[in-house]
Design brief:
Helices cover about 0% and strands about 65% of the residues. It contains no helices and eight strands. Strand 2 (about 20-30) and strand 3 (about 40-55) form a beta hairpin.
Length: about 160
């Protein structure tokens, strides 16, 4: 289990050209699928994420997003670090934030399914704690085109 934060860029929305100017946070729980002495590590992860995205038009409010993801990790394992790939799917919910003066809401409230793919590294800090770095792409099936790229850092705890 653990917590993390992300810098987010929405490459599908042409309105916002500033890369990685949005943020988000997440909590996760891991289930180990491989033996402790194996040279690889299979992990099933449940993750809940909250984040912000730009609106679908130049004068529209930002979107508040959250997602529940089911991810499968495959990592090459060494004594003090692991690196690998992951992928999965989940449910994404998007809702426009309250508009500021002069803004018009153009994005609907919507709940959709989507995909997530990425690469990660895990560095063992102690017997119970590890630090994680991730680069992921998420593709929710929304009305507006959202192609989310996230750079994430997390701290994990093992029982």
């Amino acid at each position: 289990m653990g917590v993390g934060g992300s810098l987010i860029s929405d490459q599908g929305t042409l309105v916002d050209v500033n890369a990685f100017d949005r943020g988000g946070g997440f909590v996760f729980g891991d289930l180990q699928l491989s033996r402790p002495d194996a040279s690889f590590n299979g992990v099933l992860q449940l993750r809940w994420t909250i984040f912000s995205l730009p609106g679908g038009a130049p004068d529209s409010p930002s979107l508040a997003g959250n997602s529940g993801l089911l991810l499968l990790f495959y990592r090459y394992r060494e004594t003090w670090w692991q690196a690998g790939i992951f992928g999965g799917f989940g449910v994404f919910h998007f809702a426009p934030k309250d508009p500021e003066p002069g803004q018009v809401v153009v994005d609907p409230n919507e709940t959709v399914i989507g995909w997530c793919l990425g690469v990660d590294s895990v560095f063992r800090l102690s017997r119970s704690f590890d630090a994680r770095l991730e680069l992921s792409g998420q593709l929710p099936r929304t009305e507006a085109s959202h192609k989310i790229i996230a750079l994430s850092v997390a701290i994990g705890y093992r029982f």
